[in-house]
């Protein structure tokens, strides 16, 4: 029986993870569940899964959770504050940590799980975007096993040979006969919208992804293709890539989740339903396979599969991310922070959709050689960028 901790249990990835765990209760037990402030939702999960611990970052919400669990005589112990997530991530009672907090807020708990040498199912791509080299080095130093559940990276992982899979972050792709990694993306809901209408799209339109059902932040990132940009940076660290090793391809049907092209002309693709339960089940059981509760792909009803080159005018966020990736760690930290501020402002109706790349570009232009060699440097630059971007948004009168 393996113990599993889910950080971000009430979110979209958290829910998909629990669906897989429910079907495989003979192999896994939920040892801890954590979220930010969703007391009612977390209470329900505690009643069903009876974890040893539950944690909420928000102190008042944790008090509410304690009340709810006491009223139902649920023995789960409730912890509170950011420190509680870090502590649970390192708890020896769990073997696997699912890192599914959204945004930079997940960095500290993901690092804590890495330093405790866990098997980490990584959904929280923002933490890797911020701390790439440090995170991969920490995983090696502490013997942590980082397995990607972002569907594209999980697809690439599945297409790679074992000698690469077991050396993520430090692998030799050329030595394994790999020519290129082909990162696919659907292009989001605005792939065909006339460019001049992008500035006036609504939040509802932006979060209505054509193929995947996800949390609000990543849905907006998918519409701007910043998500593909963050994934590009995520892939660079996981698979130890050089610039010429990776290409982004638009594939609107989301049937192929990404591909690997080899020296001998072979191209391997991983296909399946657009359901996160597949990559989660894959990483949970790796190198074995378990039932994810996902219907097999019906090739006869998939229709035509098509591929396009991303248009830089439509997707400026993708271009900014690609440039930031090769510029270095400070640039990717700044880009991620600016994007989180801009997306939150867009979701609150304070700025339009096209303000997102503008704010990111402005934040990147203001970079002046800040150091990013330690976790403290990264957190400081993240905080500074958020303050700066917040001020700019206030100044332009939004
Ligand atoms: P959701 O918004 O659906 O869920 C976010 C989760 O994080 C919730 O449990 C939330 O708790 C918790 N949370 C939010 N803020 C904090 C905080 N400051 N500290 C601790 N916990 C916090 O997001 P998703 O599940 O969509 O995404 C989670 C991560 O997975 C993201 O990094 C995303 O990029 C990645 N991912 C998601 C995919 C998807 O299909 N959804 C696919 C691939 C990657 P509460 O409910 O209390 O607010
Ligand atoms: Mg993805």
Short structural description:
By secondary structure, the chain is an alpha/beta fold. 46% of the residues lie in helices and 15% in strands. It has helices at 12-23, 39-49, 59-71, 82-89, 107-115, 125-142, 151-159, 162-165, 203-207, 216-224, 226-238, 277-285, 316-327, 329-347, 355-365, 375-395, and strands spanning 2-7, 28-35, 53-56, 77-80, 96-99, 119-122, 145-148, 178-185, 246-250, 256-262, 267-271.
Structure description:
The chain folds into 3 domains: 2-148, NAD(P)-binding Rossmann-like Domain (Rossmann fold, 3-Layer(aba) Sandwich), CATH 3.40.50; 169-272 and 297-301, no CATH class; 328-396, Orthogonal Bundle (Rna Polymerase Sigma Factor, Chain: A). It is 46% helix and 15% strand. The chain has helices at residues 12-23, 39-49, 59-71, 82-89, 107-115, 125-142, 151-159, 162-165, 203-207, 216-224, 226-238, 277-285, 316-327, 329-347, 355-365, 375-395; strands spanning 2-7, 28-35, 53-56, 77-80, 96-99, 119-122, 145-148, 178-185, 246-250, 256-262, 267-271. The strands form 2 sheets. It has a 7-stranded parallel beta sheet with strand order 4-3-2-1-5-6-7, with helices on both faces. Strands 9-8-10-11 form a 4-stranded mixed beta sheet, with helices on one face. α6 links the parallel β6 (119-122) and β7. α2 (39-49) packs across α3 (59-71) and α10 (216-224) packs across α14 (329-347). The longest helix is centred in the last third of the chain and has 21 residues, at 375-395. The termini are far apart. Bound molecules: NADPH dihydro-nicotinamide-adenine-dinucleotide phosphate and magnesium ion. The site of magnesium ion has 4 residues, from α7.
